[in-house]
Amino acid sequence: MKKKPHMILFNPDQWRGDVMGHLGNPAAVTPHLDELVATEAVSFRSAFCQNPVCTPSRCSFMSGWYPHVRGHRTMYHMMRPEEPVLLKTLKDAGYFVWWGGKNDLIPPTSGFDAYCDIKYEPERKPRPMFGGAFQAAGGNWRGDPGSDKYYSFFAGELDTQGEDMYYDSDWAHILGAIDFIKNAPADQPLCIYLPILYPHPPYAVEKSWYDLIDKLLLPERIRPEYLSEDKPSILSGLRELYQMQSWSEERWAELRATYYGMCARVDHQFGLLMKALKAAGIYDDTAVFFFSDHGDFTGDYGLVEKNQNTFEDCLTRVPFIVKPPASEKVKPGVSDALVELIDMTATVHHYAGITPDYTLFGKSLAPLIEGETAEHRDAVFCEGGRLHGETHCNESAPANESPATLYWPRGQMQRSEGPEHTKATMIRTHRYKYVRRYYETDELYDLEQDPMETQNRIHDASLARVREELRERMLDFYQETCDVVPHVRDSREKH
């Protein structure tokens, strides 16, 4: 019987797909990821999430389902006990599952026992990372209410208080995982799931990482003055509420460099984990998956953080790197194939020798990784938003209902019964992106001519055939994935 490989699911939060050196970004400092891709892994240049915020995306990639299949499209509709989750599948297949990091996947009241053997809690209390208690240099890092920094998510330099690092929950869980690798059970395959917080805003990092970033090499920012008028109203609404219109390019560069520094820090932590696997003698027996749940505006379109129902590449395109175990074939390098995050679960199943007992829509990436094919999907999809009257989907919660909270601008827009929180779906091919919007003007972009997605060409007669082909393909997508039928049939016989 073939030995099951160990699994590393390294899942940073909110990392844009373009912030990696090996993908040609000269400002990105990601040496460990770059070396891995150069020698023994495949990086997917065109990998896309299925929802641009945390919980819906995680529910999707951990199940292999699109968000619409079972209504997992808000921050408050998580995976239920009867629904498939990759961690539980691995645990049931004999894996020892160690989970260190954030949740955003299952209701905490459900408990973690079915999903992991250890839900790690560090012995040493880490410093806070988010919200009003976030400790950064300069005291009140948010600025005064009404100022152009109050909703900016920009905190700046972290005060390490004389230590080598700012010991937060990310460091706690990385070091906990390394300690686990040193002392892991020898009689079971391991799954280490690390859903860490960085580079999720607030934008803050130690000076040592910030100093690595050359601001002169940052790619051009997509400025709001470039945009056509028929863009989704939530974008202009957020710009107004953020009140950051007065920011100079120098200030934007500082925020962006901080985000890049956060990514450099995560790359370093990833390198430490790989070193620990090698020291334990299990690196060759391990499949490594490095991927984020979604991206971040980071100044593009005059915005920060993220948004739940627009699908710019900076939000939907994510890093996705796979190193198979040494027993499997690999053609290292960068793949241009269109892939989706739901393909992660199918690929883990493939390497673990698991035949799923339910319908999933992800497809194994193994043929791409082996170099047997260069194509995977003809299109990728992402979806978000809600219908009018779906108040249970409007993200109302204490975390965003008070104007004193960071998420108030986005929460305010998403609670509106206007068109702002429009239910919408994206289809993207290599060249075109079409967005179907329920209450607002649809969007269409020719990405070869307009890679920044600034000019909505939905009414351009020269693209009429493209528009209709993409609409038809989206209809096929919904018909193919509209439901899942249990693999076990009910008995109709009387007993």
Verbal overview:
This protein has 495 residues and is α/β, with parallel strands linked by helices. 27% of the residues lie in helices and 14% in strands. The chain has 13 helices and 14 strands. The chain has helices at 31-39, 54-63, 86-92, 169-182, 207-210, 233-242, 249-279, 313-316, 343-352, 366-370, 398-401, 408-414, 464-481; strands at 6-10, 42-48, 96-99, 118-119, 154-157, 190-194, 203-205, 286-291, 320-323, 333-340, 380-384, 424-428, 432-437, 443-446. It has an 8-stranded mixed β-sheet with strand order 4-3-6-1-8-9-2-10, sandwiched between helices. A 4-stranded antiparallel β-sheet has the order 11-12-13-14, covered by helices on one side. The two termini are 40 Å apart. The model is unreliable at 131-138 (pLDDT under 50).
Draw up the topology in text:
Layout: E1 6-10, H1 31-39, E2 42-48, H2 54-63, H3 86-92, E3 96-99, E4 118-119, E5 154-157, H4 169-182, E6 190-194, E7 203-205, H5 207-210, H6 233-242, H7 249-279, E8 286-291, H8 313-316, E9 320-323, E10 333-340, H9 343-352, H10 366-370, E11 380-384, H11 398-401, H12 408-414, E12 424-428, E13 432-437, E14 443-446, H13 464-481
Parallel strand pairs: 1-6, 1-8, 2-10, 3-4, 3-6, 5-7
Antiparallel strand pairs: 2-9, 8-9, 11-12, 12-13, 13-14
Helix pairs in contact: 4-7, 6-12
